[in-house]
Amino acid sequence: MSLINEGNLSHEIALEWLEDISDLDYVRQSLDRLPTRKGKPAYHRDGRMVGYAILGRTAKAAPASGTFHRRVFWLAPHDRDTLPDGQYSTGAPLESVDPRTLEPGKPGHKTERSEGGPPSPAMVALGLTLPKA
Predict the structure, then answer these.
(1) Mean pLDDT for the chain overall
(2) CB neighbours of residue 13 within 10 Å
(3) Phi-psi category of 116—alpha, beta or left, where left has phi over 0 and alpha has psi -120 to 50?
(4) What is the pTM of this model?
(5) Residue 113, helix vs strand vs coil
(6) Which residues pair with 14 in a beta bridge?
(7) Distances (CA, A) of 93 to 74, 76, 79, 104, 122
(8) How far apart are CA 83 and CA 18, in angstroms?
(9) Measured between alpha carbons, how far apart are the two ends of the chain, in Å?
(10) How far apart are CA 102 and CA 107, in angstroms?
(11) Which of 18, 36, 72, 122 stands the most exposed, by the fewest C-beta atoms within 10 Å?
């Protein structure tokens, strides 16, 4: 499940990746208020930005702020790609999704890979599964 719904993403026309995502199990995604529809946004979080969304010409700025809601994809310094045996050796942050499930206008979702392995015994007992991606 993603915290971002498709209604927030209707004006996306492309996702721009700043690094190869094929080895990343997950990326965090946020819907940020940015001054432009396209181009690399400024980044003010710990960690690193790995990608961002580009909006089409029909995207309208918020009247009060003049900003656009755009997705930014990022990783924190304590995420699995940097600390494989750390806090997220299994499981993943709430706002994370498997980057292979992302496309313009689609929020993406978690997978077995993004969660760090096969389903837990509790998930198996409940009959719940995640896609393999």
Answers:
(1) 88
(2) 15
(3) left
(4) 0.86
(5) helix
(6) 54
(7) 12, 10, 9, 22, 19
(8) 20
(9) 14
(10) 6
(11) 122
Based on the number of CB atoms within 10 Å of its own CB, is 107 exposed (0-12), middle (13-18) or buried (19 or more)? Answer: buried
Q: What number of residues does the chain have?
A: 133
Of 64, 65, 67, 92, the C-alpha closest to 78 is 92
Given a contact cutoff of 8 angstroms between Cβ atoms, the answer to whether 81 and 112 are in contact is: no
Q: Where are the beta strands (DSSP E) in the chain?
A: 12-17, 27-34, 48-55, 68-75, 96-97
27-61 per-residue burial string, b: 16 or more CB within 10 A, e: under 16 = bbbebbebeebbeebeeeeeeebbbbbbbeeebeb
24: part of which helix (H) or strand (E)?
none
Residue 108's pLDDT is: 92
Which comes out higher in pLDDT, residue 72 or 112?
Answer: 72
